[in-house]
């Protein structure tokens, strides 16, 4: 039987990559976030994680749910939206075809339109690549990337999260689930994309709600959070409809989840959005 041994909400902002450039004004600003991802990678290795399942809100689909089921993820990635931040970022990671197909099968059982793809030219998006760059740089664990549909429902995302957990439990893998996306996600308009945009949230309302969400998590008041999640995703401009967070909590057991939320870096803004890294501890 398989086991979920790590679960986390993680940031994937491309400005993390700028922290690697000597002399970058963001080098110090992004160091805590980079350190949080590296720490999760250390914990994953320590716990014997064999596969990362990444709910990627930067892999957005118009038609149905998709899973990258390639046996190998290999390529050089340049971001189409921010090539000045991510360019020629090379990755070479093992995939997990069996688990990807099992997730699709369990989703099919729940009457969801989910396809697991084995297409060599289907690369990863940066919602998966950036966390893996810090957490899994040598490819010690396999990777399954799951897309977030734009035209879906809250309930469908919840069903896919539950299907993912069933597939994990029936596998022989020790799995880490990552919800890769922001908290609030209202970005600054182009004319305001100056240096201050990297270090400020575009909406004070969004910032206040983000901080309240972190308080609820730390107090383990998950039922209240889940009840507010549909409004939170809509009113605070959720990235990919916050499908990653919906799927994460569904995989954790929804209202039945009682674990500790451990915040691994301070809440921080990026291009107007709210970002954080939080581990949701599971019984192992």
UniProtKB/TrEMBL annotation:
Domain called Extradiol ring-cleavage dioxygenase class III enzyme subunit B: residue spans: 7-280
Please name the InterPro entries in this protein's record: HPCD (IPR011984), Xdiol_dOase_suB (IPR004183)
Which superkingdom does the taxonomy of this entry point to?
Bacteria
Return the SUPFAM superfamilies for the record.
LigB-like
Q: What is its EC number?
A: 1.13.11.15
A GO molecular function annotation here is: 3,4-dihydroxyphenylacetate 2,3-dioxygenase activity
| Keyword presence, Oxidoreductase | yes
Return the broad EC class. oxidoreductase
Instruction: Reply yes or no: does the keyword Oxidoreductase apply.
Output: yes
- Write the record's keywords in alphabetical order, separated by commas: Oxidoreductase
Q: What is this protein called?
A: 3,4-dihydroxyphenylacetate 2,3-dioxygenase
Q: Which organism is it from?
A: Bradyrhizobium zhengyangense
């Amino acid at each position: 039987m398989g086991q979920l041994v790590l679960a986390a909400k993680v940031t994937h902002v491309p400005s993390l990559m700028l922290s690697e450039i000597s002399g970058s004004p963001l080098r110090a600003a992004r160091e805590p976030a980079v350190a949080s991802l590296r720490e999760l990678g250390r914990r994953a290795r320590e716990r014997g994680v064999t596969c990362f399942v990444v709910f990627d809100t930067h892999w957005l689909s118009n038609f149905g749910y998709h899973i990258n089921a390639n046996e190998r993820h290999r390529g050089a990635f340049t971001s189409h939206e921010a090539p000045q931040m991510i360019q020629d970022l090379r990755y070479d990671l093992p995939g997990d075809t069996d688990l990807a197909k099992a997730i699709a099968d369990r989703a099919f059982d729940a009457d969801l339109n989910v396809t697991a793809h084995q297409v060599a030219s289907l690369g990863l998006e940066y919602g998966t690549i950036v966390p893996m760059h810090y957490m899994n740089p040598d490819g010690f664990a396999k990777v399954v990337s799951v897309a977030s549909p734009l035209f879906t429902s809250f309930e469908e995302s919840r069903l896919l999260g539950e299907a993912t957990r069933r597939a994990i439990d029936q596998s022989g893998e020790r799995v880490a689930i990552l919800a890769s996306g922001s908290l609030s996600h209202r970005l600054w308009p182009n004319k305001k994309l100056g240096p201050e945009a990297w270090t400020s949230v575009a909406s004070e309302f969004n910032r206040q709600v983000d901080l309240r969400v972190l308080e609820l998590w730390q107090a383990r008041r998950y039922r209240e959070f889940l009840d507010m999640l549909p409004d939170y995703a809509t009113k605070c401009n959720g990235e990919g409809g916050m499908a990653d967070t919906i799927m994460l909590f569904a995989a954790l057991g929804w209202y039945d989840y009682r674990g500790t939320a451990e915040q691994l870096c301070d809440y921080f803004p990026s291009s107007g959005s709210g970002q954080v890294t939080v581990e949701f501890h599971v019984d192992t």
